[in-house]
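Model: You mentioned two targets. I'll fold them one after the other.
Researcher: Yes, keep them separate.
Model: Target one:
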Amino acid sequence: GIIHLRLAQAGTLLEKGSLSTAGGILEEIRADIDRVRQPGLALIWLELSGKRNLLLGEFGEALTCFRQILRLCYDNGFDRASLAAAINLAHALTYLNQTSAAVDLLRNARDRAYDLNETALAARASFLLQVVESRSHSMADGVPVDRSVTEMWGMAPDISTKPDRAELYSPLDLPQSDNYLAFFEDRALGFQWHLGRREFAACESLLSQTEEAFGGTDSALIHVRLRTLGGVLAYYRERFEEAEVALTGAAEALKYMGLKPELWQVQRFLGWCRVRLGRREADQQSLAEATRRLLEEMTESLAPDNRSTFLLNKWTADEEYIAGEINELARMKAAIEKTPWFLRLNRRMRLMKRLHRLSEHIDRYKDALAKKALDDGKDAQSERRPGLSWWKRLLSHPRDRATLSFLVLPDRVLVVRGGWMFLDFGVSPVTRIEVRDLVRRWHEPIRNSVNGSRGLGARPSEESNEAPDEVILNQGQQQTLVERVGDQKAIAHSLAGALQMPALLDSLPKHVRALTIVPDDSLHGFPFAAILYKGDFLIQRYSLSIAFESAARRTPMSSARKAALTVGVSRGTAEFPELRGTQEELKQIGSWLAQHDLSERRLDDINVEGRWPTKEDIIALLPQVSMFHIACHGEFKADRPDASGMVLITREGQADILSLRELSTMDFSGLKHATLSACWSADHFILPGRWVISLPETIWRAGAESILGCLWLVSDDVAVSLMQRFYYYLGEHQRDEALRRAQLDCLRGELVGCEHYDTANPIFWAGYNLYGSHERLRL
């Protein structure tokens, strides 16, 4: 009886916001609850502890509690309780941006609730599904979305914000919870749902009703949340002084109560209020620093994987600056439309000049992140290289080429469209979470076919028992991928629509025949060649190259080097399978080099008369050559540039990594082209801080002109034949056109020795990307 009483006391204290006292009671009775003999009491204890952890921003502990509740329910056959537990866990996962997992849990809970005739829980799950969906499309953490590219370029976004059921639930229609705080939270969630849909009048009405219903409560927690909701609504209504007063008071109360997640959110809005009101710069900086520290404190309880996911829609200081610039550019663009025609040219030139400055800033921002990631995390300042003036950028851009640059922010994607004598931009209202989810879904068929691999680009995990040969696609797996290509086309179409690619391409001048794409975030892992445009794959209409900066400054260098380094690693280990096509590939490359009067320096592990490929020899020979071709495995580990790179096999059969960090310290300024003929050689990891780590970018930033790599695992037969075609075309065409023609040969089923493959499937050709210079290779 005493445990029941103490649990009830802890619950009451939580509702009032006395989290410290409630935590003391829960800790006091923790040892007295036997989970085997008293599973019901254990469930109550875990639920209260999980909710308290969530309120305090202790997300790792909260997830542990809610997962233990779910397991306890399953073990004891508590069907109804398991539904409530799944809904609570989904709510916690939503906090951490794990929306896909949350949606799966909620859909399952909703369907099971209907089966069990638990209509109240089914309604609550359905409503939370609406909230999660709205949240993923919402204005999110503090910065409102200005006009989208839809409005700017007159195209409709291909984004659906409808829930997966026709029936929409209003928060006022939900059955009343028997828990006072949960009853209030249903209304608060409804407010967020309407806010995400920009239904401000509905927000106002719901807030008024909620204040009337809960105005007499003695719960400090509910009172501070009501003040917060009022301040947020005032902000979006652009009543900034009113919002500042409400949010300042809410922040003080939240700080006293220790509610870090809500304090962080309030300080975000408060900071933007002060920016809009022109408050003192010192006050703005002080608040921004406090908000940053708060975010660090909240992430400390999370595992690394959860931490990076949680940070997906959290703004860095530089992103906030960029978002502010985007807002200003949008205002300038809107003003131009209302300007008399004789003043438009001058104002449009001012807009292009400011847009160019922002592009330059973004390039320096990415460069600084790259240096920091490869220098043990030390702060690094990007070198202030002399950039192009905005007018020189317009005049020097190739006439037949357009550059599409993407910047993925938490609540929007900036798209900059540049070419000869034009520079424009748009904003797509697709969130960072949505972009990553679409890219992930595109890769799922490939990832699922590689049993035991860790995501896109690694050998079997240490916990896996699979034999290494299982990571090579057999014919059955290839057939499975072929059957799924329809789904991939639909996903590619969705992502292209979300990024407004059809509108971008329709707006290009007719003489444009090539595209340079500057991706960001997870878009580095998306095969743009596989996008469908007017019934064709993009590669059927345009040559494609991938760049790491929006305005290329390098000019191809003349070099007296007439040598090439070729490396073949065909032997395997217990961890890495053999690469059987390596020798045939090097033989064909050797013939091409001889035809172009390039002496070949070969390192391989088959030819007994040759030199064994070692890290030391490769590092010594690379500065002496103008061409580099390596066929080997790749290894990538997040947060470990020193353990990520190209896999060499020693004579003793041990793996030795030529790492990203080692490559980043080398000078590749005389290297005209490098081909990384390895599965996953162009794979990217997006690390905390949003630095995208990859072999191509590392080698390019070290000075190489161009790099050819592949995003995923491809059959040896196809890889060897496609490489042969690429080098054949490379002697007569620009580099990106040479790759395009090789990919079209694959698409048309014209690769020699690949007749038994359905090479029209994008899986066989779309993963190959040319990075860096697209210009003709001059040896």
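Model: Target two:
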Amino acid sequence: MKMLRGIFGMLLGMLLILAVMFGNLFLQENRKTETISKVQEAKYHLQILVQNTDEYFWTYFKDGARDAAVEMNAYAEFVPIAQKSGEAIKDAVEKGIYSGVDGIALKPADALGTKEIAKEAKAKKIPLLTYENDSFNIADVPSVGSNSYTIGSMAGKMGADAIGSGKKAVIIMNEAGEEGDISYRNLSMQGIAEAFSSKGNIEIEEVYTLKQNMFEAEKVTYSIIAQHKDINLIICLDEKSTPGVAQVLVDNNLVGDIKLVGYGSMPLTLDYVERGVIYGTVCPNAYEIGYYTVKQLAQALNGVQISDYKSTQLYTIDASNVAEYDDRMPKKEGGE
């Protein structure tokens, strides 16, 4: 009797497993059918390459892109790729071209590779657009996004307001491995340096570089506090790393002694701003970038003359306005 119960139990378990498997297959097929339906109903099929990271930027970027796609009767397909991988971007674009997409948008990883992609897309008469890219000079390829110099200028002004004149600062930036990255760093540093000069002659002691390793921000911050005992300010221009830098200041009881200006609007970053750990943060309007990326592409396909560069807004969050951003982030400014 016990053996029969055991066999019955095993059979029941197997039936449940099969039911779950068939249920998943059914859901996947439904999703596939729904996607095909959306592509067929839409006027244009746009391929939007996005970085495969957990940065909050991409959540808002996709929201904006989807809204513009609905408005322009387009289907926006998001293709995740490895961060700063020129080869992965090239492979994804080639697949898009040969699968018959109508337009492509990407965030470049290097200048040479992007020029090759642009040449191939042009040969196939497929519009190409870049976003968050004022670092690469690519002829005849329009771009949407934030201005690197302005990012640096806003961060520098906020930092100067936090510490006053005659003080010392350290800057944390992403690794500059490619031509465009170096250009971005130069533009951002120019903005910071000019803000420091106009606000009270603040000295930049050192610029630290972040590699794409786990806990890299924490390691760099520990090096900073060990080697620069008299600094008053850290500016971190990396969204993912900003909370990590803040946590090191908390762990070492340096909140208030060292002011921190960060980048981006991750929930943890905003929480640190509210608690006074981070003085303030500079934020790109990711929703607006996603929105105009899709809208500009669709307009180009409609035969509308679009601008070579569509600048999107930046804004700052500090203790005075962080409560306004806890539950919502700004969308696009005005209409077009």
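Researcher: Noted. Anything on target two?
Model: The chain has two domains: 42-146+286-312, 148-284.
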